[in-house]
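hey so u asked for the seq, here:
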Amino acid sequence: MLAEFFQQLRSAGVPVSIREYLSLLELLASPAAPVDTEGFYHLARLALVKDETRYDRFDRVFATWIGRRQAEISQKDIPLDWLIQTMRKHLSDAEKAALEKHGWDRLMEMFRERLNEQKGRHAGGSKWIGTGGSSPFGHGGYHPEGIRIGGPSAGNRTAVKVWEQRHYRDYDDQQSLGTRNFKMALRRLRRFAREGAIEELDLPGTIRGTAEQAGLLDLRWQPERHNTIKVLMLLDVGGSMDDHVALIEKLFSAARSEFKNLEVFYFHNCPYESVWRHNRRRHDERIDTWDLLRGFGEDWRLILVGDATMSPYELLYPGGAIEHHNKETGAAWLQRMVSHWPHSVWLNPEPSASWPYRQSIAIVRELLHERMYPMTLEGLEQAMHHLSK
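ran it, structure tokens below
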């Protein structure tokens, strides 16, 4: 759409460069992008016209171009991506506080009613499924408790359900920079057991024995050392966890190098009836959580990693999962895991100072018997100390 405008300006003798055009696109993609025609006019003129003597030519081209654009838009549906960028409504704190939470059952009932009644696309309203408004249904706006449909999050993180196909990527377990402190903290968990045939030289014992024998070599042997600690790690991925990718990858990489027996699976927000090993195949190659419980004995240490930031419905209501309909609550699955693996902890990348303000974090901490630790060196050491008991 703007490429045509760019070409018309150049044809009219306005010397617009590619650099200036790209600057305009960058400004339109920023949070400060205008949402009305007048705002766009002033922004475009500021970005594209460097000589005041060209203002008259710019105005004539703009008037012709925007008039044709408005006529075309009035004759057909407004493009969804244009709505996302231009019709987003920013509410004040007072307006946000005035919006009403409806409760899970009422919210689902209202959603079914909207689906049956709505006949067209809406934007900026407070009732229908649309964009940029304060309705509980749609995307790009704000509501304290709603269902996000058909587009990206506006960053408020208040959706209790998401209707879209989302794709996540696996965390990188080869991350090497900045992982040394993680390795040192995780190393506290390792326990070496003396077992197997005598086939390894006990160097400290040999030195000590030789000294006791006045220099006569006294070779001493010991069973080969095996790292017998077994760790099952479940990683939250996607959504609000995107803010913590770098930190999680450092932890993941350190765990790969420190634990010989490490098994890793993914979940989103809360483990439910299935988990997965690879995010790109998460819809096709799910692993039943019951198989996880049957396949890994209680001697395994369970480490759950996630920000525990979600709607409380995801933990307390059947069907509350944000991406699918779960027959059992997230709390029920967490209770099963904690009961099956008594040595279990939850590592949270969110700063601990923010925990009291998240209801879901309080619920998860209670389910884990307060064994939630921040992903700081002190927090990791405390978590490893608990797991090594």
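The first strand starts at residue 122 and ends at 123. Residues 78-91, 172-177, 191-198 have pLDDT under 50 and may be disordered.
lmk if thats what u needed
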